[in-house]
Target: Lactose phosphotransferase system repressor
Amino acid sequence: MDREAKIISLVNREKEVEVSRLAEAFNVSQVTIRKDLVHLEDLGFIKRHRGSVVLNDSDDTQIRLSSHYEEKLRIAQKAVELVSDNETIMIENGSTCSLFANEVATQHSGITIITNSIFIVTHLRAIKGVKLVLLGGEFQKSAQVNIGPMVEQMAANFYVDKLFVGVDGIDPIRGFTNNNLDRSEAARGMMRHAKQTIVLTDSTKFSNPGTVREFDFNDVSAIFTDDSIDDRGIQLMRQNQLETVIV
Model:
């Protein structure tokens, strides 16, 4: 794991950390650590204040990105192996999906990403060699995502091999769930225009049933999750014949 990921994890755990302590913790100069912090601040993860660092609480997606960041990054770095150069894919909104989108954009050339996430588009806008297609709709400010029927209306202009999605929970009876009806409907609309739907989610979602049904188990081709998944979660995926990649 790179130093920036470890910085986010440390700040997430301790809430506020002095810059001098970060330099000591990672055995680098304060000049080097400040360069890392400038980059993380530009990405929206952290804020610097009077010699200390705190998490950026400006919006929902950034808050969720900092939670279980290490696990989400591992998932993103593994899932990127499914993508080839010059491929067109859909990526739905979500914290793990945002990290995945960055991995795709930086590791592959000639990529086209179709998404309803303004958060993803904003953070990838400066990366050369990636084409971004933003699905329009009603703007949901907290998650920086477009929702509503226009999302599927625009998605209907495309058909891709792979849609990558995040979820808020997993329920043994209801399948994959979301905590927001509008985002759930947008994700299902995108799913109807993809050959495969692939879930990217950290293992904590297996203990969270969620409130809104998003996908049935048979809607999903594979799930990528982290190695803290318990035996019940593994067994649930096996019972539903879901390819499960654990990182």
